[in-house]
Structures are given as C-alpha cells and as structure tokens.
User: Which sequence fits this backbone?
C-alpha cells in the first residue's frame, strides 16, 4: 500500500520507458498540472496591469529559453539576441501589416526566417569560439539593425511599423487577457520542446559540443552542423518571441532591438541558470520585473524625499548591473540552483541539518 | 586473415618534431594489436591520425581497403571506429548512461524536431538504444552507477566508462589508449578480461596502447613498437621480445622485457 505521506525513496521503476518519463512520479505529474493550472487561472486573480507584465514575462521566457539553447547548452555566447528579436518582429510586421497575411501564418514564418538568418550568422562558429564568436554575433547585431533602419521601403526605416493584435475567427486577442493566454500556451510548448530536446540525441550532442568538442567529434558529431543548428533553433524561438512582443506592443522600430536588449537576455540566462529551462523562465521573470519593482520602490521613496527622485532613477541601471555581478560571483548556478537548494532543504525538513 | 587497417608510410610533423616518421604496419581483422613504445614515442599521435584528429603530413591509412586519410573524424566514427582517450575525455556533468548514449550518436536518427517533440519514433529510439547501452553497462559491470554523474566517479571507474562509451558504438575497431594507466593490479586484471571478451565474444578488433609489457605480451596477437616516431619493431610477441632494436630502446629506458 502506498503511503501518501511518504515520498518515494527507492527506485521502483520497472521498465526503461518508466525510467525515462518526463513526469515519472505522481508528485511530478501533480506539480506539472498545478503549474499549468496556476498559469491558466492567473487572469482571474490579478489586475490587468499585472496580466500585461506576465505576458511580457512569458514572451521573455520564450526568448530566454531560445538563447539558453545556444549559450547554455551549446556554449556559444551570442550578443545579437536583440537584433534577432527584431528579425522576428519585423518579419511578422511586414507579413501582417504590409501583405495582410494572417498572424497565425506570420508567427511561424517569423520563427523560420529568424532561424535561417540566425543559422547564417552562426557560420563563423566553424572557426570562432568563446569571446571571438561573441564579437562575431555583435557584428550580426550591428548589420541587422543597420539593414532594418536603412531599408525604408520594407521596414519603414527609423519610424518603424504599426501592428495589430491577432484574432481567432470572431474573437480578438486585443485584450490583455486573451493575448496572455496565447503567450502562456506558446511558452508551455516551448518548455516541452526544450525539455525534450535536452534529453534526446540532439540535446546530448549540444552538451557534448559545449563540454568537449574533440571527444564530441569522436562520438561522430559533426561539430559545424550542430553549432549552426544550435544557432538556428535558438533563433527560431527568439524570432517567435520577437513576433509575439511586436504584436503585444503593436509597434516595431529599430531602437527597440538595440544592444541593451541583447545584454538583458544574456542577464536572464546568467541569473536564471545556464542550460536550465526552468532557470530561463526564472531569469526572464526576474529581469522583466526588476525595473518595475525598482520603479515602485523609487516612487515610494520619492514621496518622502522628492529631491532624491532624479538620483534614484539613475540608480536603476546601477542596481541592474550590480545584481548581475552579484549573481556571477556568488551563485554561478543561477536562480535555478538556488531553487534546487531550497527544494533539497525541504525534502529533508525538519531534519535539515 | 585480411587486414582491417593498413598504415602505410605515415609521417606526422609538428614544426621541428617528427612525431611519426614513415611508419608502416597493418592490423588484422579480429586480433588484439598493441602499440608500444617509450613516453613520447608517438603512440597517441598514431591513434589521432587513425581517428582523424591529426592529419598526417604524408602517408596513407586504409580501413577495410578504403582510404580514410582525408575523412573527417565524425565520418570515421560512422564507419565503426571507436576510441577511448588516454586523458579521460568523458562529459563530466552527464550520467554514465548519457555518456554511453552519446557513444551511440551515429547509430541513432532522431533530430531536433522529432527529438524535441518526443513522440513516436524519437521516444521508441531512446528506449531501444537504452537497451543496447544497458548491455554495455552489464558487460562492464557499471549497473550501480548508471545514473551517477561521471565527474564524481573515482578514476578507475571513469577509465572503465571511457572504454564503455567507445564500446557503446558497437564498433568493428576499437582504439584503447592506455585503458589501464593508473590502475592497481586487480583493476588491470579486470580490464584485461574485458579486453579479451571484446575480442572473443564481441568479435571486435582491438588496438591497445599499454606500458605494462607483461600484459601486452599476454594479450596481443601482434605488436608494433614505436621509438621517437619510428617503427622499430612489428610482429608477434615472440618476435618482438627477440628484436634487438626493441630491447635496446627499452633498456635505454631501464625496463626489462
Ligand atoms: N598537438 C601537438 N603539437 C605539438 N607536438 C605534439 C602534439 N601532439 C604530440 N606532439 C609531440 O609528438 C610526440 C609524440 O607524442 P605522443 O603523445 O604521440 O606520445 P605517446 O607515445 O602517446 O606518449 P605517452 O606514452 O606519454 O602517452 C611528442 O614529442 C609530443 O610532444
Ligand atoms: Mg599517449
């Protein structure tokens, strides 16, 4: 008889398929279901403002998971994410606004176009590693933004373009809640995809390329193929995130995709945890909500000391930088690792020592 | 017996250093073949040429009659050539299972799309290959540590996993670079038994690099001896033990055969 109050301790799996299930234990199943339930019922409990913020969190999570596939799994640092978000956003803007194509067709195309361009800019990875590759992706950032801001006839130049929220039949997703659901579902699919990718052949190969590229070759892995593939897959999700963001803010313009955005995404996966899907989400939420919470703290303080307002606002960037440095020094495993430690602590509770 | 691997006049130069100098020998199908020689003789460099990590300056390497000297390393793996490294090159963060599964990379098919969806074929493939990997785990007696991250294992076990990862490919030719280095005698005996079983039960051609000449003489069908990149001996263990050049090279190193 199974005792509900006792956690499984031994390994009772009797077949390989059991051993390899994503949600192996009943506990894991319940947990997954609970998370999905919370995500889906959230709009019932929080204000419209917060739904908007959570939508941004979900979109950032999709992009962060994408970047983590490249940087966390395959060990290739990219500082061109901002521009790739732009490729996704502009592709969808051009397809829907200029050509009147449905959002539902434009969204996957935005992902695919970004994947192709990402793969193209991944070609230098054949010869370049580490810092040198990072600089090459910086070139991607500069080149793509240059093209976007100069190709006026296609992109509207520096003025940008205006987009609409999508519709499903008669039903418009123009409300924050409707759009939140769309983004939440896409995030869910992204999480499932990335989790499965990591535990199958391609994901293992990515890790092998990251950890030991010479041994990876001897395993029969074509380094070039997998490095470029990582760029393409990663860019696909970044492109999807870019398109979702564009239809959310309903505007695309070059300055929305500058270098600062690339750094923010890198900060998300560094703070969240390199190579961790869950960590990507934690990091995305953290970085998305950080300026908001800092602002509210500053507003509160400003009520008492109005003169300080200017000074404190300048402080925001400082805090952003400081948080990243603190994580790099004290918790290189990121929020995902902290979460794991908390779980470990409670698993043994009350005998934590 | 037909040769599985033919090394012909292979030379390899690093700047002024001749790591390999006009080396010729062949390995017969199904035998245990040993490559010996003092430190720095060029043994590992030889394996690197065979597995494609180094490009010989000149010479020819034929595998089952086919010239492979210009083929990429990953391509040679698909031909059935597996390799265990001298300096353990396992993926330290991954479990034993995942390391062995990586050994089967070329035998699996799922890609980025099917793998990411984990439906149908990709899922079945993971399970089917898990079974094959479990055979290797059983053979090398790694059952208790299959889920353990390799980096946390003691050195001797890591060496064994390194060999296991090469075996997981189900290779025709396995290149073992000092699989017993740093082991105590009972661990060495165990590894020697594994090597004999690979050869007798699994019908794999084994290329072994090993400094313990007692073990080499016992296991090998044929031996090639390198010294300063030159082949100074090639033949059966009896022939090698009588070869004056070999004796001289080893006495220079104060080792007695
Ligand atoms: N990548 C390289 N660059 C420069 N020199 C190298 C390189 N690889 C090997 N060598 C040189 O080639 C020679 C042979 O080295 P190798 O590693 O093949 O010897 P070995 O027989 O495997 O020695 P050991 O028994 O110590 O493993 C040495 O002089 C070494 O310094
Ligand atoms: Mg060596």
Assistant:
């Amino acid at each position: 008889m199974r005792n509900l109050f006792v956690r499984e301790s031994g390994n009772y799996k009797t077949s390989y398929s059991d051993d390899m299930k994503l949600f192996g234990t009943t506990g894991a199943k319940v947990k997954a279901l609970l998370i999905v339930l919370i995500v889906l019922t959230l709009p019932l409990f929080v204000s419209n403002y917060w739904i908007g913020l959570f939508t941004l969190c979900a979109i950032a999570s999709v992009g962060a998971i994408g970047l983590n596939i490249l940087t966390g799994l395959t060990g290739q640092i990219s500082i061109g994410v901002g521009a790739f978000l732009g490729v996704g956003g502009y592709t969808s803007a051009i397809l829907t606004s200029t050509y009147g194509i449905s959002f539902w067709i434009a969204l996957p195309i935005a992902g695919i176009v970004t994947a192709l361009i990402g793969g193209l800019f991944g070609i230098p990875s054949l010869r370049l590693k580490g810092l040198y590759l990072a600089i090459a992706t910086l070139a991607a950032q500069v080149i793509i933004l240059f093209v976007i801001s100069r190709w006026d006839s296609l992109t509207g130049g520096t003025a940008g373009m205006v987009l609409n929220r999508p519709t499903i039949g008669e039903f418009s997703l123009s409300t924050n809640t409707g759009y939140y659901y769309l983004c939440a579902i896409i995030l869910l699919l992204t999480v499932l995809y990335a989790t499965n990718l990591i535990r199958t052949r391609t994901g293992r190969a990515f890790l092998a390329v990251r950890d030991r590229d010479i041994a990876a070759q001897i395993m029969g892995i074509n380094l070039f193929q997998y490095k470029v593939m990582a760029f393409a897959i990663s860019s696909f999700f970044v492109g999807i995130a870019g398109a979702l963001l564009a239809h959310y803010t309903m505007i695309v313009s070059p300055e929305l995709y500058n270098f600062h955005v690339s750094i923010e995404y890198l900060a998300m996966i560094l703070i969240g945890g390199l190579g961790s899907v869950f960590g990507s989400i934690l990091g995305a939420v953290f970085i998305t909500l950080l300026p908001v919470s800092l602002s509210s703290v500053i507003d509160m303080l400003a009520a008492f000391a109005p003169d300080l307002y200017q000074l404190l606002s300048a402080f925001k960037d400082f805090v952003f930088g400081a948080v990243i440095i603190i994580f790099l020094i004290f918790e290189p495993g990121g929020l995902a690792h902290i979460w794991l430690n908390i779980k470990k602590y409670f698993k043994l509770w009350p005998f934590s020592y | 017996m037909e040769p599985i691997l033919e090394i012909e006049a292979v030379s390899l130069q690093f700047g002024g250093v001749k790591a390999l100098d006009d080396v010729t020998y062949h390995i017969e199908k199904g035998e245990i073949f040993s490559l010996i020689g003092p430190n720095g003789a060029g043994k590992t460099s030889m394996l690197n040429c065979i597995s494609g990590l180094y490009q010989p300056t000149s010479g020819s390497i034929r595998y089952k009659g086919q010239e492979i000297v210009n083929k990429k390393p990953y391509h040679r793996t698909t031909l059935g050539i597996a390799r265990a490294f001298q300096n353990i090159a396992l993926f330290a963060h991954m479990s034993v299972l995942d390391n062995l599964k990586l050994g089967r990379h070329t035998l699996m098919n799922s890609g980025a799309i099917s793998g990411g969806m984990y439906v149908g074929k990709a899922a079945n493939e993971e399970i089917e290959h898990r079974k094959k990997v479990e055979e290797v785990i059983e053979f090398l007696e790694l059952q208790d540590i299959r889920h353990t991250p390799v980096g946390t294992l003691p050195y001797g076990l890591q060496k064994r996993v390194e060999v296991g990862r090469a075996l997981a490919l189900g290779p025709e030719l396995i290149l073992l670079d000092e699989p017993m280095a740093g082991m105590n005698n009972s661990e060495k005996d165990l590894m020697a038994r594994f090597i004999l079983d690979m050869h007798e039960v699994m019908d794999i051609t084994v290329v072994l690099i090993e400094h313990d000449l007692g073990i080499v003489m016992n296991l090998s069908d044929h031996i090639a001896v390198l010294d300063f990149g030159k082949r100074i001996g090639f033949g059966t263990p009896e022939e090698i033990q009588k070869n004056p050049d070999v004796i001289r090279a080893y006495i220079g190193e104060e080792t007695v055969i």
Remarks:
- Residues 266 and 290 of chain A are 15 Å apart (CA to CA).
- Chain A touches chain B at residues 16-17, 19-20, 22, 193-194, 196-197, 199-205, 207-208, 211-212, 214-223, 229, 233 (CB under 8 Å).
